[in-house]
Design brief:
The protein is built from ten helices and six strands. The chain is an alpha/beta fold. It folds into two domains: 141 residues, Rossmann fold (3-Layer(aba) Sandwich); 86 residues. It is 48% helix and 11% strand.
Amino acid sequence: MKKYFIPKAILFDLDGTIITSETIAEKAWQEACKVASKDNKKLDNPKLLDTINEIRELFWTDPVRNAEGRKNLHRARTWIVEQALLRMGVTDKILAENIAVKYATYKDEITGFFPHTEDVLKILQDRNIKLALVTNGEGEIQREKIRRFHLERYFATCLIEGELGYGKPDLRVYQTALNRLTVSKDETWMIGNDLQYDLSGAKELGIFSVWCDFEKKGLPSGLKFIPDEIIRDIVELLPLIEDKQTSGRK
């Protein structure tokens, strides 16, 4: 395996990188749709789930809607369900909101750390590597996750889009993290599961970028940049770091 310079600092994404919030979304929607179809016999559970997934994809891959949706997740999710219901011939805003609430509640219940994550964070701390959390989303929601999982134990600073007023892939958020940790871009790595939002800005700034391909999908075609490294389990991060400082990247 290739080895690189020891970073003085590492920036971590939160959802889908440290905790399973993004990767269990499908399971949470399945549960919400199952409950909804039991409450409303007119709803076909598989069709409702498929339609929600279609609209979710359209919504979150649109940069403008994505940016607005991150400011108020409940409103975005409710709108997505409303549109799915309308496609199925159902006009019911209350039902749409109830499904969105069920989704959020169940997703919160099953969210947790990815395996080995806490061990890896502790090892990095023991190596005196400065750690920062850089996450998009609403301030209150993301701050609650930080409290729930006691992430202050590991991270010297936590940057949240909703609190800063800007987020990934805006170059300002990475520069803010560097400033807070008092390190340079050439001394820093960025770790994330979303190529566009986590890594594109970091790569543009010149930060060494590691993509977490935990679902083992491989790089998509047409990508405008290539991450410096790809890992499929968080423990694979450790062998990338040498035991002694080197003069540069190899």
